Amino acid sequence: MCHEPNYVGQKWSSSWTRLSAFLYFSELSRTRLLSAGTKSFLEAQMNRIAQLLVLIAIITVTGGLLFWYSLSSGFCACPLVVSHGQNEAVLMESANFQSDTNVTLDIRNVGGYPVSFKIYQVKDSSGDIWQLNNWNPLGQPLTVNNLIVVNIAIGSGAGGCGNGCQYTGTPAAFTTFQSSKSYTITLTTSRNNSFVFTVTR
């Protein structure tokens, strides 16, 4: 009794063989690519580490040379320190409204130089300004660490600063200090340094 060849089984076996071979070579290629990529990554990391080590060596050698030079020549390799102790500096400790047109300021010299004031300016929230030039309050010059009480007046009427003041702004808009309002006072010294304070009635 004759049997017909099993062509289906042969075809299936041949297809499986080809598929297995394809998968094997695909995996082999992927492994080679991964190995090459890993090698490139490791080489890049090693190069970075080498560059970092060279930079550290340069900094160390430079620091050592500077330290040796500072010991041998008296050169200071320390940071530059700038002293601000010789600058003009004042602080307003308090403000007291004496009337509708006068406020006194307690000013202390907290800088390194005696201070003499020459101009004051008073500005309201709308930008209206009273300014007195050639101002020379009693007690000047204000020596270091000492306190002076200065009177700031506005308005050209009685009790104000008189005709010596200059007014800039809306006419008659700022003639007195109003309750619950804030004002900006700028004091300018003979060295043309300006100090700005805010007072509220």
Task: Give the SSE layout.
Blueprint: H1 7-73, E1 90-97, E2 102-109, E3 117-123, E4 129-132, E5 147-153, E6 165-168, E7 182-189, E8 194-200
Antiparallel strand pairs: 1-2, 2-5, 3-4, 3-7, 4-6, 7-8
Overall tally of structural domains: 2
Under the CATH scheme, the architecture of the largest domain is: Sandwich
Per DSSP, what share of the residues sits in E-state strands of 2 or more residues? 25-35%
What topology, given as strand order, has the largest sheet?
6-4-3-7-8
Q: What is the H-and-E element order?
A: HEEEEEEEE
Q: Name the poorly predicted regions.
A: 70-85
Helical residue percent band: 25-40%
Number of helices: 1
**Average pLDDT, all residues:** 79
Class from helix and strand fractions: alpha+beta
Based on CA atoms alone, the radius of gyration comes out at 43 Å
CATH topology of the largest domain: Immunoglobulin-like
The coarse overall form would be elongated
| CATH class category of the largest domain | Mainly Beta
Number of strands: 8
Main pleated-sheet profile: 5 strands, antiparallel
Task: Give the N-terminus to C-terminus distance in angstroms.
Answer: 126 Å
